[in-house]
Amino acid sequence: MGLLALVFYTSASDHPFFRAIYRFIPVVLLCYFLPALFNTFGLISGADSQLYFIASRYLLPTSLVLLTLSIDLKSVLKLGPKALIMFLTGTFGIIFGGPVALYLVSLLYPEVMGGIGADETWRGLATIAGSWIGGSANQTAMLEVFGASPVLFSQMIAVDVIVANLWMAFLLYWAAKPALLDKWLKADTSAITALKEKVEKYQLSIMKIPSLADTMTILGLGFLVTGIAHFLGEILAVYIGAHYPALKTYSLDSSFFWLVILATTGGLLLSFTRARKLEGVGASRMGSVLLYVLVATIGMQMDLRAVLDNPVFFLVGFVWMIFHISFMLLVAFVIRAPFFYVAIGSQANVGGAASAPIVASAFHPALAPVGVLLAVLGYGLGTYGAYICGILLQLAFGN
C-alpha cells in the first residue's frame, strides 16, 4: 500500500521530473513492475506471502462487485461480436502457436526436443497451454492428462508466469495510449467511446461528497456479496465435483470459478437496484483501489532471474507468445477491431479472471466486466483447447 501510495502521489505531482516519467510510463505498469523488482532482488517474497491469495480471493471479487454496480449492461452488449471474435482468435493463436514455437526453436536448439518419458518437453508445454487458455484448473488437468514430471512442471510454471506477466506489462503500457494502435488498425472505436462517455456522464450526474456512512455501505455491500459468493461457490463446486464429474472439463468444480461468476452476477443484479447510486459516492473508485492491490500482488509473483534457469524453454515461451500476438493483430487489422479487443481477448485467455479485469479497467473502469465475461469463456474452452494443443505438440515432437 505504501508503494501504491508513492506511485499515485508522484503521478499526481506537477514536478517536471515526475511529469516526464509518467509521460512514458503508465501508473498501472509501475504498480505491477516495482513489486516484481522487489521480489526479484529478494526484498520481499511473493512465494511465501499470502497477499496474492487474499487479494485474488477477497479483494478481486469485491472489486468486481463495485465495478459492475453501475454498469450499463445494454451498452456493454452493444460493443458487438468483435470482442468475442478476438477472444477466439487468441485461443486459436495459443493452440497452434505452441507447436509452431517448439518446431522453430528446435531448428536452432535441437536439445529442446529432448527428454524421456515424463520429462519430454511437449508434456510440460501442454500444461502452459492449459494455463494460457483457461487457468490453473485447466493447467492441472493437462498435467494429469499428459503426465509431465514434477521437475518439468515446475520449470514450465516459471515460463508461464514470466512470459505471461511480461505480456501483461506490455498491455498495461499501451492501455494508457491505445489511440496509436487503433489508428494503425484502422479500428472503429465508437461503441467503446460511447460506453465510456455514458458512464462518465452518469457518474457526474449523481456525484456527491461521500460520508463515512457512504464509504462503509460501499465496502460492506461489496464484501457481503463476496462472502455470499464464497459460501455458495464452495457448495456448488463440491456438489458438481461429487455428482457431475464430467463437468470438471469446464472447470465447474472450481470454487474460484464460481466465486468470480457469482460476484460479477451479484454486481450486475445490484446495478438494477437503488444500489447503483452508490457510484455517486465512489463505488468504482473503491473497486479500483482493491484492483490495484491485486495488481501489486500479481507483480510480487514474478522473479525475472528465472529466465536464466532454462533459457531454451523461455525462448519457446516467447516465440509462442509472439505467434499468439501476431495472429491477433492480423485478425484485428482485417476486421478493424480496436486494440482494446486485442488486449482483453488475449488477457482473458492468458491471464484469466484474475487479470483480465485489470487490463480492461486500465482502458476504463466501466470496461472491467467485459474482461470477466470473456475470461469465463476461457474456463470452458481451456481444457479442450489445451488438449488439442497438447496433441499437436506431441506430433511436432515426433511421437
Task: Write structural notes for this entry.
By secondary structure, the chain is mostly helical. The chain is 74% helix and 0% strand. It is built from 18 helices and no strands. The protein has helices at residues 2-11, 16-24, 27-40, 51-68, 73-77, 82-108, 121-133, 136-146, 150-175, 179-185, 190-206, 212-243, 255-270, 283-299, 311-335, 339-350, 356-363, 368-397. Helix 6 crosses helix 16 and helix 9 packs parallel to helix 17. The chain is globular, with a radius of gyration of 21 Å. The chain starts with a helix and ends with a helix. The model has no long low-confidence stretch (mean pLDDT 86).
Strand content: under 5%
Q: Sketch the major β-sheet.
A: none
What kind of assembly state do the chains in view correspond to?
A: single chain
Task: Write down the secondary-structure element order.
Answer: HHHHHHHHHHHHHHHHHH
Helix content percent band: over 70%
The average pLDDT is: 86
Strand segment tally = 0
Shape: globular
Count of DSSP helices? 18
| Low-pLDDT runs | none
Structural class call reads mainly alpha
Give me the Rg, rounded.
21 Å
First-last Cα distance: 50 Å
